[in-house]
Design brief:
This protein is of the alpha+beta class. It is built from nine helices and twelve strands.
Length: about 400
């Protein structure tokens, strides 16, 4: 059965990457960029179809963890005669005049139809290229809002219900005497338990000896009960007692449905919250507060999605906005080979009035890609080893 969830996890990643590349594609088409190929996956082609109208190649390739939208003239080696080699990046008309042999595609082979001139990606105006480069991350973030809405609507949120009150075995006193079994906890210190704020999150900052005010629903009426976080003695299997830092009671959880309007209202702040956690985690990784073993590459991500989805299908829905926002944030970072770095180079070109040496930029992105792939492989290997140790 786990194989099915692994397959689903791979398809989820493919879907997210396709959304990203479709953002580039749609923005490119909007600004009239020449597009050579839109590919789902890498490696050998399994399927391909060429548009008779535009000449664009649409393909599906064998390696599912990737994809790309290849623009005409995006790289230097696509034809030096098709792209300006020095000086300021010209306007569209100027670029055509400077090209000794601009590429023209006829609408139909052999027909006497008007010819369409392709402008190389690097000859397009910088502001257009920036928008096209940014569009992938923008589409991922927009999809994260949609996926958040779907997840919230389907999964709702969990409301804690008191199902056991612990008693001090030596004094007989109930630790949280103001509560009763069956109490539904609807708020903590005045903040409602909701999609954005779980009971665990609302009480996590309380230290030993600190109290929180719980709003509980009992018999159709609301009561406020103060409980203190303290060492609670709980009997173990050997007949002795272990102490735990608790509020003196145990909870079970009940599902609370969310209406369509409420889910729409929650989707934006929920996505922003997840994005904030991703940024925060990245910062803690850089400072060493999070070990590298906590990271996951594509293989590790597929394993985690499959593992949790097998436990509960709602986890799969939760991963959708998480992965989408993660891809958006990651790709916009100024790391060579990623969209963020390409945007930086384009901004520099815009400010200087001329591009950074194209070959130098290509080398930087090439080295960045190798380092990034190597890092991903190492992370996945470390993750697999740590899972089996």
């Amino acid at each position: 059965m786990i194989f099915v969830y692994v397959l689903v996890a791979i398809l989820v990643l493919m879907f997210m990457i396709t959304i990203h590349e479709f953002g580039h594609y749609l923005a490119g088409r909007l600004f009239g960029f020449g597009i050579n190929e839109f590919s789902i996956g890498f490696g050998p082609k399994l399927f391909q179809r060429k548009s008779k109208k535009t000449g664009e190649l649409f393909s599906v390739r064998a390696l599912p963890l990737g994809g790309y939208c290849a623009f005409y003239g995006e790289e230097e080696d696509e034809g030096e005669s098709a792209a300006p080699t020095g000086g300021a990046v010209a306007s569209d008309a100027g670029a055509l005049a400077e090209n000794a042999a601009p590429v023209r595609d006829k609408q139909d082979a052999g027909a006497a139809a008007p010819e369409t001139v392709k402008i190389p990606f690097t000859a397009q105006k910088p502001w257009k290229r920036i928008i096209v480069l940014f569009a992938g991350a923008a589409f991922n973030m927009l999809s994260a809002f949609v996926f958040s809405f779907i997840y919230i609507l389907a999964a709702g949120y969990s409301v804690p219900v008191v199902d056991m009150l612990y008693t001090d075995p030596y004094t007989g006193n109930v630790y949280a005497s103001g509560l009763e079994a069956g109490d539904r906890i609807v708020a903590v210190d005045g903040t409602a338990v909701s999609v954005l704020d779980s009971f665990t999150e609302l009480t996590s900052s309380a230290g030993e000896g600190e109290s929180v005010a719980l709003t509980v629903l009992r018999g159709g009426e609301e009561f406020e009960v103060s409980v203190k976080k303290q060492r609670v003695l709980i009997e173990n299997e050997s007949g002795g007692y272990d102490d735990y830092m608790l509020f003196g009671f145990r909870t079970s959880y009940e599902h609370e449905a969310v209406s369509v309007p409420a889910a729409m209202g929650y989707s934006f702040p929920f996505t922003m919250k997840m994005s904030g956690l991703i940024i925060s985690s990245s910062g803690r990784l850089i400072t060493g507060q999070i070990p590298i073993t906590e990271l996951s590459g594509p293989v590790g991500t597929v394993a985690v999605i499959a593992e949790y989805s097998e436990i509960d299908w709602r986890y799969l829905l939760m991963f959708l906005p998480l992965i989408a926002s993660n891809l958006a944030i990651f790709n916009i970072l100024p790391i060579p080979s990623l969209d963020g770095a390409r945007i930086v180079f384009t901004v520099i070109e815009w400010i200087r009035g001329k591009p950074v040496n194209r070959k130098v930029e290509a080398y930087i992105h090439g080295i960045g890609l190798l380092v990034l792939l190597g890092f991903v492989i190492v992370v996945d290997l470390i993750g697999m080893v740590s899972r089996f140790l």
